[in-house]
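quick one before i forget lol
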Amino acid sequence: MTVGRRPGAYICGIDAAMDVVGGKWKVLILWALNERPCRFGELRRELPGVTEKVLAAQLRELAADGIVHREAYDEVPPRVEYSLTPLGASLNAALGPLGAWGRQNILDARAELSAAAGEVREDDDVALISGRP
């Protein structure tokens, strides 16, 4: 099965990278496989909310792009393990700064909002938009 790519040349490196990791679950699959090789069921448990159909499709696309290696063992019952290729490991390393940015800017902001929400009482007069009365 071939993976359909956007027609035409990429505008920049980010454009090409997003074509590979685009999709709700691909980056999370990469994160899970960074720890160790996983079987399909293990990956499904690591990613609550993903359906079998979507996980299988995303794994197929990542394998077709050379990011994930699929190893099928000749056993009964059949066993298949997924792991990162060297290309996948380098992509995961490149995503590390993005994760650090998210932790620093998004998670910290949510923690601050949660703390602030606990300090505001229901009857307090609070502006909905900061800087506005």
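fyi Strands lie at 38-39, 68-73, 79-84.
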